[in-house]
Amino acid sequence: MKRGYKVQYGSTNSILLVNSLGRIKQLYTPFRVKVEEDTESLKKGTYVYVEEVASDPQDRLIFLTNTGAYLHSSFRIVASF
């Protein structure tokens, strides 16, 4: 899926969004995301809140919700600039 922004790790309680114009927005937990692909416990099209942010040994961004830990690419971030 083509996104209009890049997502970067900020801290365990935030992420940074950088849009195509270079504007930066920091989102703090909990923030709302839309599920983009089915997982074992989440259905596509539903919304959940990210409670914490982490990264794995391969430096991939992980979102922790009340149902588990997932790669950020499984979600669409609900935010505007």
Polypeptide structure, described:
The chain has 81 residues and is an all-beta fold. It has one domain. The protein is 0% helix and 53% strand. It is built from no helices and nine strands. The protein has strands at 5-11, 14-19, 24-28, 31-35, 47-50, 52-55, 61-65, 68-71, 75-77. The protein has a three-stranded antiparallel β-sheet, with no helix packed on it. It is globular and about 35 Å long.
Offer a concise description of the structure.
With 81 residues, the chain is mostly beta strands. The chain is 0% helix and 53% strand. The chain has one domain (5-77).
Class computed from helices, strands and strand pairing: mainly beta
CA-to-CA gap between the ends?
Answer: 19 Å
Question: How do the strands of the widest beta sheet line up side by side?
Answer: 1-2-3
Cα-atom radius of gyration: 12 Å
Order of helices and strands: EEEEEEEEE
Largest pleated sheet: 3 strands, antiparallel
Can you tell me the number of structural domains?
1
Number of H- or I-type helical stretches = 0
Percent strand: over 45%
Number of extended strands = 9
Estimate the helix proportion, in percent.
Answer: under 10%
Overall geometric form: globular
Residue stretches low in confidence (pLDDT < 50, at least 5 long) are none
Give average pLDDT, whole number: 91
